Amino acid sequence: MAGAAGDRRNASEGEPVTLGESAYQRLRADIVVGTFKAGEPLRLEALRQRYGLSFSPLREALMRLQSERLVSSTALRGFSVAPLSRSEIEDATETRILIESEALRRSMRNGDDDWEAGIVAAFHALNLQVERQRVAGTVEAADLFAMEERHHHFHQALIAHCNSPRLLELADQLYVETQRYRLPNYFGGTLGKRRRDAAAEHRAIMDATLRRSDDAVRLLADHYRKTAEIIEASIEWPTPK
Question: Which of 11, 78, 118, 233 registers the highest number of CB atoms within 10 A of its CB?
Answer without folding.
Answer: 118
